[in-house]
Amino acid sequence: MVSFETNDRKKIGLGLTGFGIFFTFLGIIFFFEKGLLAIGNILFISGVSLTIGLKSTMQFFMKKCNLKGTVSFGIGFFILVIGWPILGMILESYGFILLFSGFWPTLAVFMQKIPILGWLLQQPFIRSIFDSYRGKRVPV
Q1: pTM for this prediction
Q2: Which residue did the predictor score with more confidence, 134 or 120?
Q3: Are 91 and 76 in contact (CB under 8 A)?
Q4: 73-89 pLDDT tens trace
């Protein structure tokens, strides 16, 4: 049985992940400011590591099916740090989509349970979009 208890380490990890997303968003808003983008990436990765554990994080990123996304994300981060933020973010986004494409159906179900957003997602046109992508994964 899976345990969903929240200890202090997981709370800190979720906070770091949230701040990582926030700093990345700020970096994009401020015309790809490489300092904010780098801080956002570091906070995001450290937050994920604290939330699910270091061993699980390493297993997730080193799976054979996730290796292409991991390499793309890592090279994108390196390119971002050396001074080409737009190209780095493009590579990181590609890697992020490859790494986390398996979570999109779970995210869609979660979003459908949010009160106003859920009603919007239940509309026929939008629902047909979700149904066409259900169960599909980006080829690796």
Answers
A1: 0.75
A2: 120
A3: yes
A4: 999 999 999 999 999 99
- 3-state DSSP of the chain: CCCCCCCHHHHHHHHHHHHHHHHHHHHHHCCCCHHHHHHHHHHHHHHHHHHHCHHHHHHHHHCHHHHHHHHHHHHHHHHHHHCCHHHHHHHHHHHHHHHHHHHHHHHHHHHHCCHHHHHHHCCHHHHHHHHHHCCCCCCC
The Cα angle at residue 54 between residues 91 and 99, in degrees rounded to 5: 30
Say which amino acid occupies 138.
V
* pLDDT of residue 139 exceeding 80: no
Whole-angstrom Cα Rg for the chain: 17
Inter-residue contact 60 to 66 (CB < 8 Å): yes
